[in-house]
Amino acid sequence: MSESHVDGPLQPGDRAPNIVLDAITRDGKIALEDFRGQSPILIGLFRGLHCPFCRRHIAAQAQLGAALHEKGVESLTVVNTPIERARLYFRYHPLPNLLAASDPERKSHRAFGLPNLEFTESETEWPHKVGMDVVRNMQVEIPGELSGPMNRLAAFDYLNNKDGYEITEADKRMEATGLGQLFGQFLLDREGIVRWSFTEVPDGGQRMFEAPSPRELMSAASQVAG
């Protein structure tokens, strides 16, 4: 696997690293290199399944799987959740069209340049450090799921409770080292070059827990496939 991309997230025009991970939804390994020369691919690098926002983003990406496939674009979801825990979760919460891989050490996230935030009491140096004073003032709104704008930490707990998601010891291990991991989605062409991306990094944290609209994502996919 490539070394970390230290200058920030990969940008359009950058060559994506090869990553090789344990498959969750099938046996064996999944390597990005397997898709090169074959098809474009959308790769979503998410936090662990302990994150209710990422669970929703994963489901949203899976729901686009058939439409992406019609355009000749493959889709891969990566979660920093141990393989056994991830397989158990998706056994009871299956998602059609989901190709997923486990990366508990977040090697792929680092290789694509996604920072792992350090939470501090009051020091913010986005996107590497963020003060809890700033986090407590961040609001998130999910119509139909939250009653209104809510503190992002409170929303995190609220949605996990709503989902009945039980935090296991495996989840706690991931939270201990990667609670601040920022997520991103990268659309690669057939040669493994980034052509479009969405990450939580820009805008000083205002994108945290957000995701691109299906229309934006499918528009980007149409251009890459064309």
From TrEMBL:
Pfam families assigned: AhpC-TSA
Entries under InterPro entries matching the protein: AhpC/TSA, Thioredoxin-like_sf, Thioredoxin_domain
UniProt-listed Gene3D superfamilies: Glutaredoxin
Domain Thioredoxin: 10-161
Record-given protein name: Thioredoxin domain-containing protein
Organism: Bradyrhizobium iriomotense
Biological classification of the source: Bacteria, Pseudomonadati, Pseudomonadota, Alphaproteobacteria, Hyphomicrobiales
